[in-house]
Design a protein that fits this description.
With about 300 residues, the protein is α/β, with parallel strands linked by helices. It is about 30% helix and about 15% strand. It is built from 9 helices and 10 strands.
Length: about 300
């Protein structure tokens, strides 16, 4: 008798496709959180496999901090257009102008400000489920997530109130105003993501590969120098995030392992200019990829606090 055995990546792929199809079956208005980062790129390929030849049956949603890498925005817009998907973008700048987000004195990173923007978009479009690319291996708080992660009527997450998922059965029941987040890549690792990108020959933004960039040293990390401020009639959106005279400045060959905005993303010195090089580098790494995120390094509980408040 012939038997068919799935290899490791095939098993992860079928599991993720199953989660995506469960979302499509159980929710009326789901959306895919698409940033243009490597994890959400894998989500899009999995969605193609789950639903083709039909169109992907949910729009893409992205929350901009206003401090994004220009390369990432270009890739996000182009990829959504190639897939014929509806891309919805809501920004922190718009939320600040409307008064729904408030910048605290001395606050530089805008990651915390993404929370009211996301919750506002969920309410605006009446999304009942948002699909994200978070993985349990990334960070302690994300390790507590289930595939279906319940959010209450205030958009908040309680890690002690998670629904059981015995035998891969998912409870998508919601009361009015409640919301679900779904994480098809929960059991994937950073290595799995890059091996899948290699196997599927997926395009990723060029900042994942080594390139020359001006950086400055802050908080034990190399932070990219933001674009120059060219419009004196408007306030500098990167004010406070530019290198100070005492901070070490250098032009380096670097790349990103995980992408936040330019203020929060730590660059790593690297000569990895191909997917094979990145896979070898990840195999030898002794620091997690989110160890290069300045917003996470600020506090060990930073991610869990943000998630409880409604973060991705």
């Amino acid at each position: 008798m012939n038997t068919y055995h799935l290899d490791h990546l095939q098993y992860l792929e079928t599991e993720a496709i199953h989660v995506l199809r469960e979302v499509a079956a159980e929710f009326e208005r789901p959306a895919i959180l698409f940033s243009g980062g490597k994890d959400s790129i894998c989500i899009l390929r999995l969605a193609e496999k789950a639903f083709r030849p039909s169109d992907i049956p949910m729009p893409f949603l992205n929350v901009e901090t206003g401090h994004e890498f220009p390369e990432l925005l270009e890739f996000r817009d182009r990829r959504a257009k190639e897939l014929g998907a509806k891309l919805l973008v809501r920004t922190v700048d718009e939320a600040i102008a409307k008064g729904s987000a408030h910048v605290a004195p001395g606050q530089i990173s805008r990651n915390q400000l993404q929370i009211p923007v996301l919750l506002g978009a969920i309410e605006e479009f009446r999304f009942d489920c948002c699909i994200g690319g978070a993985r349990r291996d990334e960070e302690k708080a994300r390790a507590k997530e289930r595939f279906f992660s319940f959010r209450d009527g205030f958009g908040q997450w309680d890690p002690k109130n998670q629904r059981p998922e015995i035998w891969n059965l998912y409870n998508g029941r919601l009361n009015p105003g409640e919301n679900m987040r779904a994480f098809p890549l929960s059991n994937w690792t950073e290595m799995d993501v890059w091996e899948y990108i290699k196997r599927e020959q997926l395009e990723v933004p060029n900042i994942y590969f080594s390139h020359e960039r001006e950086c400055f040293r802050r908080g034990g990390q190399w932070i990219p120098v933001p674009p120059p401020h060219t419009d004196p009639a408007k306030p500098d959106p990167y004010a406070g995030a530019r290198p100070k005279p005492a901070e070490k400045f250098a032009k380096l060959v670097v790349r990103v392992r995980t992408i936040a905005d330019m203020i929060s993303t730590g660059m790593i010195e690297s000569r990895a200019d191909s997917v094979d090089d990145i896979i070898a580098e990840v195999a030898a790494a002794r620091v997690t990829e989110r160890g290069t995120r300045a917003d996470d390094k600020a506090s060990e509980a930073a991610m869990e606090d943000r998630k409880k408040a409604g973060y991705f």
